[in-house]
Amino acid sequence: MTAPGTGCGDDLRTRALSERLRVVAVRGERLHLAADRAAGCAACAARKSCGAAALNEGARAETIEIARPPGLAVRPGDEVEVSLEGNDFLAAASLAYLLPALGVVLAAAAGLAFNLPDIWVALTCLAALGVALIPLARAERHEDFRTAFRVEAVYPAGSLSGLRSAAGRGPTCGT
């Protein structure tokens, strides 16, 4: 939560999710960032009994590649604050989770409505799952979601408090 009157968070129409990620490499106009899949686990109350935390314990950090904003000077080891608007996040989550689940449920319902044998219902569900994942694969191939990330601030390597925004000014908010 930001302080009232600071300008950060005043516009409730666009909410952004933000995360601080480490720069692994800078190649031309692309940034390669290390994303820890279990970054939120440390603050979660259910972390001791959570299966996802146990699965991610030995996992390597995933690398995300995003476009480098013009004029942004970063080096490997720096950290950047990256934001994603809430609507873009919901669109990605819908393509990744909602659409496949909905496709499988509708396929199962149709198979049962037509009194198909269980094996045919299962095969129909697998086919529906494959078809439902096509929009996600297309979005990934065309970088629809990667272009939605914005670099809000840069934290130079080795400095705990040193902060410069992507535009060269002071800290910025994620809205």
UniProtKB/TrEMBL annotation:
<protein>
    <submittedName>
        <fullName>Positive regulator of sigma(E), RseC/MucC</fullName>
    </submittedName>
</protein>
<keyword id="KW-0472">Membrane</keyword>
<feature type="transmembrane region" description="Helical">
    <location>
        <begin position="89"/>
        <end position="113"/>
    </location>
</feature>
<feature type="transmembrane region" description="Helical">
    <location>
        <begin position="119"/>
        <end position="137"/>
    </location>
</feature>
<dbReference type="InterPro" id="IPR007359">
    <property type="entry name" value="SigmaE_reg_RseC_MucC"/>
</dbReference>
<keyword id="KW-0812">Transmembrane</keyword>
<keyword id="KW-1133">Transmembrane helix</keyword>
<dbReference type="Pfam" id="PF04246">
    <property type="entry name" value="RseC_MucC"/>
</dbReference>
